[in-house]
Amino acid sequence: MLDGLQGSIFATTASNWFIGNQTMSSIPISLLWTQSVANDPGNGYVTCLAIIGSNLFAGMSSNGAYLSTNNGVSWTNVTTGLTDFHNTALTPSGSNLYGGFLNGVWITTNNGTSWSAKNTGISSVSIWSILASGSDLYAGGGNGNIYKSTNGGTSWSGTTVAASNVTICGLTLSGSIMFAGAQAGTVGILTSSDGGISWASSNAGLIPGNKSVYQFTYSGSKIFVATNYGPFLSTNGGVSWSARTSSGCDNVEAISYINNYLLAGHRGSKGTFLSTDDGTSWRQVNNGLITASSTPTWFPIAYFANSGSNIYGASAGAGVFVSLNNIFGTIKQTVLNVTGDIAITGSIWSNDITSSLLGTASYAITASYALNAAGGSGTSGTSGVNGTSGTSGNSGTSGTSGSSGKIGRASCRER
Q: Which end of the chain lies in a sparser environment, N or C, as judged by fewer CB atoms within 10 Å?
């Protein structure tokens, strides 16, 4: 909360202006990404992420799985027992971790120290998605089949839902309805309301013809799906879908509903998108992501995972990116009568906030990782955030409340 503001504060968050003496609401705090380890883990091509307690796992396209116990500061390759190293899916179930590989399902019960195959009933099948629901497991195959196990993966039974050249690369359960997404062909989205025994097409509102459906995420009755045509939303259990593809948010592979906000990872070169209104509008949040060339093109983001306020993004080519202790915060307070120092807390990206405080004392808008944000001009005060010179005040890079002001610290792909 902002208590007792005297005079006015002017703030902008990329596209929206909020002017003093009005109530500010729903001001999103941006993400600041940090590359976990340059081009690590492995070859940098991360396909999936999973979290068990304080353990962060990253699945690689050719180097099996990696484990970090310190939020990605360092990584250890954990592949003992594996006979294939193309890790396509990771799903925790209690303290166990299930992995999808090109030669079936594997399990580790000791945080990756060793792996063992769980492939009875899955013969020479690549597995691209795994869903754990209570004591049941589901696995999406690269052969158009969805497999189910009721005994922790000891044995599996399969149901053919698509042609043998179609990959089932998205699985989720919302309420009593299971959703499956198919890559390639016209299959699109399938739903099951009987525990995966039977499946029905659920494509009303999607783009007709060939399509790729990658991942799902949900919040309450709202189901979001990432497709090669962009995100779509269903509010009726998949009976129909509506496009959420504004602001260039198209061709997304990763999608995740985190801390009441929606994140989408672009399959091409646009990086990460954030929506505060369920996908009606989007803005890019790429500060700290590594560009794939000298032009502003970012590595594709293939997966999101989060643990509390910590958010992790899996990139196709630059390893894991981490956004620690961030919030997609909101400020809801009428701006009136400054009586003391104020702080907007959270991690804010460059130029996200510009301020101007009009008053007779020194105040600051501060945040962890506020990079080169433009300071506002004070009429008779000393405001600024790494500020520029004030009109008739004392703001600037060495101002009273500039870069040395108070630092406020506050807090992808579902398969």
A: N
